[in-house]
Design brief:
heterodimer, A: 445 residues, alpha+beta, 9 helices, B: 481 residues, five-stranded mixed beta barrel, 20% helix, globular
Chain lengths: 445, 481
């Protein structure tokens, strides 16, 4: 892992060669290891070490962004030479850029870093995968999935005295159990490898697979739904994708455009971007080195606020919340650490008990927006879909395709669970919604 | 890196007990430009280099890679790859076997005429600015964008079997789109295709021939018209898919399910499996008799084309579907022998840091014998659909739903008014069996797709699809609320 001292040294060597009014250096290092298994054996086992350094130069209305993975002296020469050439030849922008000045050096000392030997060992990953595969064999199903670890370091420095450095780690175990007519899915994601809940993951994925055997038909239509946390993440990430980009909101492309301080979702939904939540991956600053603020985007269903970066904060004359992505960034600032803040008061069993006739959904697959301004989206259920009748799981059903307005769907929230999980960068509970529209069934093979 | 060092490194792999190893070094320089409403939106340049080492030890693969491309690091990475392969053997499984392939020694040049990175940025930006200005026709056309992509890559491949290949490859692409606002709605039109336009392994000459400025006003007019157009009604209709949308249909419903790694479950927990199981090979009618689909890596300029894949296997042309019958898979050295086939060359990695996996090459629907006018005149009540907007398909690639940017009604064999928010839905074999007309070679074009996602860690691959507009009967349309 690249250290703060190495980052400072590299950035100083670049800064000494630069001729610009403002500059920004971003250094990024990732070591990623992944053990992938199929048919209850390992079929892919890989590791990579990747580094990248990005230089942004600004002079008047001209700017350039250049990056390289080559951290050698030759690579740095190429980086500075190309940046300067590009700066000289680029057409002017219509607005000036002022890089942020945080006035402090942020060096993250987050406890969410796993420095254990196990985190780096392919043998440890193989042993956990072996346990998952043994569970599959015991239950006469086949195990598929992956066990991955990621170590990352991010460093940002600019000519306006901003310096920020963070190291983080993350491990993830995904298990999908399959047999001829069904599959079951479970996952666990944590900063420390020892916190991975391998026993729960293998037990839940086997259980869903066994319960899902011989699925029956269900007539497409509108049903109540109980979404497991991973399914809630799938829905909320689509909503975020369609609506939470600040640029999209400002340009009128989002379903949130023109609706600030209005009731958009059910009042039971409170949604923040909060990187310091105990379950979140801790990245305390953005890609401009600005400290991340907690932003309550949805409060009791009302669209309260949106995230900003230096450009949009200046443009709209509001505070910078520290949500810049890497420049150049036509997408604009975006929330990457979403948390459903609502504290539910039910267990999953209690959610199911409230449903007269509905569908229990483990997760979704291949969701894609159809009309982002309206909030319309399509996708399918996957790895465990069940009919609920009179408060009990009645029988497994075939996968269903939904085509629905997800804003409407999030206006029909009934109850959420106390327990929340971290999945794909979001902290989410399970959720009971009054209505979801299914338009077709996936066919049998 | 020096071939002599790579040979020494691979010998070391053998000394460490590996029955096979390969080494891949890549250098990639790329540039992305975008303009929004005649103003610079983004300019970025990048240069990456690094290497990956794949070893097979006692029947188990291990792979490691690094962006630090020096000899000391290469030894460290080799040792990591060997350790990873040894760790894989902790779970006993049938050992991996690689199908034999001929040894190649070759150096392949790009067939691009004009290196897109050599064209001055100012010239390219001016072109893109003019392209967005060409769409500034109506008050409704509020967001107008143009973008351009250029990539120059050098790749070196060496294996313990004696293959040594160097390849140069250039990629060029560009496109425009416009968002129109009005009538409490927002509509998009793109040219020549959605999501960045069209891409090829030709040089800047490919972009110069795109006619962005001539087509800007056309899509601006259509976008404005769309916001005021009626919504596509639900029903069952005959449809004609334009070439750009048909490319995506081929991609999702034929390309992915013919990937043999998916069939064997290697992608099951992530991208899914396939309905085209080996028992169906040569026994399953997946389309009507006029449907012929090939995997062809040999077409000059095709984004999915190449001379050699990342296992050193030459690019090939093979049938996947012949006269509607399912007859072939995309395969690898590891998977092909299990179904009695030879490697056909489809293993690619999206960077030095990733292991090669089975990827589409150029998956092409062969042209038919009709003109587009003949396709239209054979429809009493139908829709012509164009421009990719939204796509979704189940994890076995059977149940799909697509939305396009625009549709035009077809009534009594004639194109009629524009309708908006069109969608269509279907099941793969039923859909392809309903194909009763494909336009001829005059209307055929190879569409470059730069963003095919697959694998873990996710790899984004460049592929392509040759298509001409085609007609499908009795398709369910208008399912979105």
């Amino acid at each position: 892992m690249i250290t703060l001292t190495q980052c400072k040294d590299l950035s100083q060597r670049i800064a000494s060669r630069v001729d610009a009014e403002q500059y920004e250096v971003i250094l990024y290092h990732t070591t990623e290891a992944l053990t992938r298994f199929a048919n209850s054996s390992i079929h892919q086992n890989v590791q990579s070490h990747e580094s990248e350094i990005q230089l942004r130069l600004i002079k008047g209305l001209h700017s350039s962004v250049t990056k390289t993975s080559d951290l050698s002296e030759e690579g740095l020469d190429w980086l500075v030479r190309h940046s300067q050439e590009q700066l000289k030849n680029s057409a002017p922008m219509n607005e000036p850029i002022q890089l942020p000045s945080s006035g402090e050096t942020i060096v993250s000392d987050s406890p969410k870093q796993d420095r254990s030997d196990a985190f780096k060992e392919p043998e440890y990953r193989a042993r956990i995968v072996s346990q998952v595969c043994e569970e599959a064999n015991k239950n006469a199903v086949r195990a598929f999935g992956s066990f991955s670890t990621t170590q990352q370091a991010l460093f940002v420095m600019n000519s306006n005295h901003t310096v920020a450095y963070n190291e983080s780690t993350q491990a993830q175990l995904i298990s999908q159990m399959m047999q001829d007519s069904s599959s079951g899915f479970a996952q666990s994601t944590a900063s420390h490898i020892q916190m991975i809940e391998a026993d729960r993951v293998k037990r839940e994925s086997v259980d869903l697979c066994l319960r899902g055997r011989n699925p029956r038909d269900l007539e497409p239509g509108e049903y109540e739904v109980v979404l497991l946390p991973e399914a809630v993440e799938d829905i909320l990430s689509m909503i975020a994708h369609m609506g939470f980009s600040t640029v999209a909101i400002q340009e009128g492309r989002s379903f949130l455009s023109g609706k600030q301080h209005q009731q958009v979702f059910d009042q039971k939904l409170t949604l923040s971007d909060f990187c310091h939540h105990s379950l979140q991956a801790d990245l305390p600053f953005d890609f401009e080195g600005v400290p991340k603020q907690k932003v309550e985007m949805i409060q009791n269903g009302i669209f309260r606020s949106f995230v900003t970066d230096s450009k949009w904060a200046a443009k709209l004359q509001i505070p910078n919340t520290g949500h810049a992505l890497m420049a150049p960034n036509p997408f604009g600032p975006f929330p990457l650490h979403m948390v459903v803040e609502t504290t539910g008061d039910a267990s999953l069993a209690e959610l199911i008990q409230q449903v007269k006739k509905g569908v229990l959904i483990t997760r979704f697959w291949y969701a894609n927006p159809i009309h982002p301004k309206m909030g319309t989206c399509t996708g399918l259920t996957r790895d465990g879909t069940f009919l609920i009748e009179n408060g009990r799981i009645a029988y497994p059903i075939r996968n269903l395709r939904y085509t629905d307005n997800l804003v409407d769907m999030m206006n029909s929230i009934q109850v959420m669970t106390r327990e929340k999980r971290f999945y794909n960068g979001m902290v989410v509970p399970a959720m009971h919604c009054r209505s979801m529209r299914f338009v077709s069934q996936a066919p049998q093979s | 890196m020096k071939e002599s060092f790579i040979q020494l490194l691979l010998q070391k792999a053998k000394d460490l007990g590996c029955e096979y190893a390969d080494f891949r070094y890549e250098e990639t320089e790329q540039q992305n430009l975008s303009v929004k409403n005649e103003q610079v939106e983004a300019i970025s340049n990048g240069f990456d280099r690094g290497f990956g080492i794949r070893v097979l030890k006692k029947g188990y693969f291990g792979f490691s890679s690094s962006a630090t491309a020096d000899e000391k690091e290469a030894i460290t990475v080799l040792m990591e790859a060997v350790r990873i392969a040894e760790a894989s053997s902790l779970i006993k499984a049938d050992p991996i076997q690689l199908a034999p392939v001929p040894v190649h020694r070759d150096k392949v040049s790009s067939h691009a005429i004009k290196n897109p990175l050599s064209v001055p940025i100012a010239e390219k930006m001016e072109y893109l600015q003019s392209a967005t200005a060409s769409m500034k026709l109506h008050e409704e056309c509020k967001i107008r964008k143009a973008s351009m992509h250029a990539r120059v890559q050098y790749k070196q491949f060496c294996s313990t079997e004696g293959t040594y290949i160097e390849q140069d490859r250039i990629t060029s692409g560009a496109g425009i789109h416009v968002l129109a606002f009005g009538n409490q709605d927002m509509q998009i039109r793109s040219y020549p295709n959605s999501f960045g336009g069209d891409f090829s392994t030709f040089g800047y000459e490919f972009i110069e021939q795109m006619k962005l400025l001539e087509n800007g006003p056309i899509i601006a007019e259509e976008a404005r018209e769309l916001v005021y157009a009626p919504v596509c009604e639900a029903g069952e209709k005959d449809i004609i898919l334009d070439g750009n949308q048909l490319a995506l249909q081929v991609h999702e419903s034929i390309g992915h399910p013919t990937e043999l790694d998916r069939v064997f479950g290697y992608e099951a927990a992530y991208a899914g499996t396939s309905f085209l199981t080996p028992d169906k090979l040569f026994h399953f009618q997946v389309g009507s008799p006029i449907v012929n689909i090939v995997a062809d890596a040999t077409i000059p300029g095709a984004l999915g084309g190449f001379a050699y894949d990342d296992e050193g296997v030459p690019g090939n042309r093979v049938f996947l579907v012949k006269e509607g019958l399912f007859v072939g898979y995309l395969n690898s050295r590891e998977t092909c022998w299990r179904i009695g086939e030879k490697p056909m060359g489809s293993m690619r990695a999206d960077s030095f840091s990733r292991i090669p996996i089975i990827r589409m090459t150029s998956i092409n629907l062969e042209p038919g014998d009709k003109t587009v006018q003949e396709l239209i005149s054979g429809i009493e009540d139908g829709l012509w659909l164009s421009g990719i907007k939204s796509w979704s398909i189940d994890d076995r690639r059977l149940n799909f739903q697509f939305a396009t940017e625009i549709a035009r009604e077809i009534k009594q064999g004639k194109l009629g008014k524009i309708v908006k928010n069109p969608t269509y839905i279907g099941e793969t074999p039923t859909f392809w069996k309903s194909c009763d007309g494909i336009a001829n070679r005059e209307f055929w074009h190879v569409w470059g797709v730069p963003n095919c996602g697959k694998g873990q860690p996710t790899q984004i691959m460049t592929v392509s699809h040759g298509t001409a507009p085609a007609r499908f009967r009795n398709i369910k349309v208008g399912v979105a609320k």
